[in-house]
Request: fold
Amino acid sequence: MRPQPWLWLPLPLPLLLLCCPRAAAPPPGAEISSSPHLRGGWGCQQNQASNPSPAPPDNSLSQLAAPLHPKIHLYNEKQVLRWEAPSPGNGTRPVVYRVQFKYTTGEWQDVQSTGVNCTQITATECDFTATSLADGFLPHFNVYLRVRAELGELASAWVTLPGFQHYQNVTIGPPKHIVVTPRKGTLVVRLSPPFHVDSSLATFWYYVHYEETPGIQQVRGPFKSNFFLLDGLKPFRRYCLQFEARLSWMAQSTPRPGQLSNTSCYETTADASTKLKQVILISVGVFTLLLALAGACFFLVLKYRELVKYCFHTPPSIPAQIEEYLKDPVQPILEALDKDSSPKDDTWDSVSIISFPEKEREDVLQML
Reply:
């Protein structure tokens, strides 16, 4: 039967809203149609209880927050991926993480090798530093990493980092085990590289930043060996040094610079000719000084001769008897002295003439 014409009249808007119940909100993850109207013009599409519309499939990737701010840390041989944990959920179980890697042409695979396991870990970092050159990622290949959070059957979206090459992106530290030995106008340097590299692919070049204190800083290098001489220096001078290791590999024309070591200062010694000159100068100086002192002393003695004689003359001493008398005049010291000086103490020598010249002999006989 054909419907009556009044049924097709448009109803007022409030009456239309009362006629059409509000549709239920779509479940999380459901796709919402982008069409702004329903079929049949102004009308409502009601869900029938006997024939409900099927719910869209549940998407687990959108129900768990992904890790935040992942960063790769490359320093010398260290390779560590760090990230921040997402906001904690209401569950009692902890969120775990999974890290995967791949090369430019390859499939994603878990970071799970000898000594390294980055699957279902609770920590917010993955340390995949190689224990030897044969292990770990290839240092001259592009490596891609990605990480996601997991909680039971739920998993977050993957967070993928840009690719990196270890030799190209690494931060190079200063050389290690630096030993400097001062010698004749030279500093002998021995050191070790910041980390070990594949000698067929890369090598280290060493530079020395030095200055004479005080002075202008200069740079020597490159030295391609870890044992070298810093020669041409001035003897008996103090030099302050800093060492740098730069990584040179086949894919880069310019070596990658590294960090400077701590400043250390050393004093150079003299060579053989300088030592001989030093000995001669010291000897001549000492001899000249002694000669000058001797001349000065002689001049002073001549100028102040009387004073010197007076200073070095021994003063006269009083006899012991006189000193005793002066101490005690009552004692008969003078009489004792007179008695002691008796004639018997006088000694006489007899002289006999044994021979004399003839003329004198006649004169003596005449006198007799």
In short: The two ends are 221 Å apart (CA to CA). DSSP finds seven helices and 18 strands in the chain. The first strand starts at residue 68 and ends at 75. The helical segments are 13-19, 166-169, 272-303, 305-312, 320-327, 333-340, 358-367.
